[in-house]
Structure formats: structure tokens, C-alpha cells
Design brief:
Number of helices: 7
Distance between the termini: 38 Å
Number of strands: 5
Strand order of the largest sheet: 3-4-5
Structural class: alpha/beta
Radius of gyration: 16 Å
Shape: globular
Largest sheet: 3 strands, parallel
Order of helices and strands: EEHEHEHHEHHH
Helix content: 40-55%
């Protein structure tokens, strides 16, 4: 918000959470954070999304939204799980693409500074932004017509 003061932050509220939890969320010197009830509504107005790894990355890809993927587990769970998962990338959208098209900040790399750096890069580097959008378009084409989430899950399972 300091580097791009015109930025408006928008959050998708999980259906189980009360709006009042978000009513006082405001960072010093910034616009209030808008809270929308549906993820699709947020993705419709967003330039860049920050999302957890999983099917949400496919949802963002279907909207053509460049994203930064974040994920953090307890250290023990991560160490145990990492022994069984042998992939170079975790985000479903990257798995479907067959290459890393969006940044992934997993575990120790998932810091506020790193998230901010990646988001700022996508917002301020038009070439990177457009290259990411083009790669996401390819992912959408791979997924095809409605039912994409199911096909995405099948593609990920086939790779794993």
C-alpha cells in the first residue's frame, strides 16, 4: 500500500465468517479493505490475486487473473509430507500448465515481504503481467468447457 497507494485491497469472505470480523480491518494510511462474499466477485474485479494453493488457483486461472500462490503448514507436517510428494511445483495451475507460470511461496518462502514483492512485480511489470495472462489463457484452453475443476483434479492426480 505504501508503494502503490492507489491500490484497493479486496478480500473474499468465507461463507461461514461473519462480516463483522472484517469491519475494522484497515491498514494505516490506506483505503478500507473491501469484503465481498463470493470469490468469483473478487476475481472479477482483481488485477492480481493472492491465493492459497489448491483449486482456488484453477478458479483464478479461469478468470485469467495473475496470482501469487501461498501455502504454509506446520513445520512437522511439511517435513513429513514433503517426503511423499515429489513434485517441483504445488499449485494446481502450475501442474496443469506443466511449468511454473505463477509464483509459489511455500513454507519458509511464504513471508509478507515475499508476497508483497511478487504482487508488486506483477502490478508494475507489464511484460510479466501479460506473459502470465497468456499462460493462464493456455491453462483455460487445456481445461476446456464447464467441468474444468474435475478435469483439473484428474490432471493433477495423473501427474502425482
Amino acid at each position: 500500500s505504501r508503494q502503490l497507494p492507489e491500490t484497493q485491497f479486496v478480500v473474499a469472505r468465507a461463507p461461514s465468517l461473519d462480516d463483522r470480523l472484517f469491519s475494522s480491518v484497515r491498514w494505516k494510511g490506506t483505503k478500507p479493505i473491501e469484503v465481498l462474499a463470493r470469490t468469483d466477485d473478487v476475481l472479477a474485479v482483481a488485477d492480481v490475486a493472492v491465493t492459497a494453493s489448491g483449486t482456488a488457483t484453477v478458479q483464478a486461472a479461469l478468470h485469467g487473473r495473475p496470482m501469487v500462490v501461498v501455502y504454509r503448514l506446520s513445520p512437522l507436517t511439511y517435513r513429513l509430507g514433503r517426503r511423499f510428494v515429489h513434485v517441483d511445483t504445488f499449485a494446481m495451475v502450475n501442474l496443469i500448465a506443466g511449468r511454473r507460470i505463477v509464483p509459489e511461496l511455500i513454507q519458509d518462502d511464504c513471508t509478507p515481504e515475499n508476497v508483497s514483492r511478487e504482487v508488486l512485480s506483477l502490478l508494475t511489470d507489464p511484460a510479466r503481467f501479460e506473459a502470465t495472462r497468456a499462460a493462464l489463457k493456455d491453462v483455460r484452453q487445456k481445461l476446456g468447457a464447464p467441468g474444468a475443476s474435475g478435469r483439473a483434479a484428474e490432471a493433477v492426480l495423473a501427474m502425482i
